[in-house]
Write a structure and sequence with these properties.
This protein has four helices and no strands. It is mainly α.
């Protein structure tokens, strides 16, 4: 089973797992999960804020999640075809 499928199945399972099971799983990965917390640089935060403001004032367009997924799928298919 590939990693993407494992992630997908775990994500789906986590949405419906009992509290007891979630706590047990979290206990096993707690240290890694805490270390994996992303801390963004001030420069990165500023860029995100700039992009949001540009979107909100209409100077830049944005894609829907579906449009983004379609573009990604198209690129991935082109890569696979070589």
């Amino acid at each position: 089973m590939d990693t993407a499928l494992i992630r997908q199945r775990l994500h789906t399972w986590l949405e419906t797992a009992s509290d007891k099971k979630l706590r047990a799983i979290y206990t096993m990965v707690e240290e890694d999960a805490e270390q994996a917390a992303v801390e963004y640089t001030d420069e990165y935060k500023h860029e995100l804020e700039r992009r949001l403001a540009a979107y909100q004032n209409g100077s830049e367009a944005a894609l829907t999640a579906r449009e983004s997924r379609e573009r990604i799928d198209k690129l991935m298919n082109a890569i696979r075809k070589g």
